Amino acid sequence: MPDIAYTIHGAPSARPPLLLTHGFGASQAMWGPNLAALSSERQVLTWDLPGHGASTGAGAGEPSHDGCIEEMLELLDRLGAGRAVIGGMSLGGYLSLLFCARHPERVAALLLVDTGPGFRDDAAREAWNSWVGGLADDLDARGLDALRSGPETQAAEHAGGAATLAVAARAILTQRDGEAFASLGSVAVPTLIVVGADDDRFLAAAEAMARRIPGARKVILEKAGHAANMDQPAAFDHAVGEFLEGL
């Protein structure tokens, strides 16, 4: 297993803690603008995915969806948390859905930020994976300049450089099946979906999740893009804080 970097924010509380997972090419630094508000009444754990930030690759093997889910379980165990609010942005949101599908007993609520549930259509999944392969090749060829420019990637410092990100792209940004999409109708916990009004690529995905997850609430943040929590931190903190208070 890789050496995983993580940080615990805030003091222990009777409230369920919040586990936050960043998107591809970002790191736990992307949650910086929100931590003061989110950790004021509960513990928040942020972490770096394998090959990202200060986390290493996968040691003797490649990172994987299964490996990431196991790491999330271990992080909750380190907090001593039987259940937690599981949240993530982009790739982190996709992994949060997978975690909920496989370990619903550990999930108190879901927070899905600028993310999607993957694809149920094989052709669409193949097109996505073709794009991911091109991104990985570009990372190998051009280094970190291949990453999309956004506040979440600009805030990240990757100890392994572009090489570990290329491995992570092929291993965990690539989608294997429609498990996450198929799980939407069985989500049985309160769910908040947050998406930036300018995040064109994920507006439809947010709507698809809102229609299929029972009782889900969707919030669109104006003047925000793919990293809505960084583009509009005050509005994001308000929406998430209100959601958490209602649990």
Describe the structure.
- It contains 10 helices and 7 strands.
- By secondary structure, the chain is of the alpha/beta class.
- The chain has one domain: Rossmann fold.
- Strands 1-3-2-4-5-6-7 form a 7-stranded mixed beta sheet, with helices on both faces.
- Helix 8 (200-212) links the parallel strand 6 (191-196) and strand 7 (217-221).
- Helix 2 (65-79) packs across helix 3 (91-102) and helix 4 (122-142) packs antiparallel against helix 6.
- The model has no long low-confidence stretch (mean pLDDT 96).
Strand-helix topology:
Elements: E1 6-9, E2 18-21, H1 35-38, E3 44-47, H2 65-79, E4 84-89, H3 91-102, E5 107-113, H4 122-142, H5 151-154, H6 161-173, H7 179-182, E6 191-196, H8 200-212, E7 217-221, H9 228-231, H10 233-245
Parallel strand pairs: 2-3, 2-4, 4-5, 5-6, 6-7
Antiparallel strand pairs: 1-3
**How many domain units?**
1
How many whole angstroms does the radius of gyration measure?
16 Å
Q: Using the coordinates above, name the CATH class.
A: Alpha Beta
Q: What share of residues are in beta strands?
A: 5-15%
Mean pLDDT: 96
Name given to the CATH homologous superfamily: Alpha/Beta hydrolase fold, catalytic domain
Low-confidence stretches: none
Distance between the termini: 34 Å
Strand order of the largest sheet: 1-3-2-4-5-6-7
Secondary-structure arrangement, i.e. CATH architecture: 3-Layer(aba) Sandwich
Named CATH topology = Rossmann fold
Q: How many E strands?
A: 7
Total number of helices: 10
Q: Looking at the structure, what is the overall shape?
A: globular
Element-level helix/strand string: EEHEHEHEHHHHEHEHH
Structural class: alpha/beta
The helicity comes to 40-55%
Could you give a short account of the major beta sheet?
7 strands, mixed
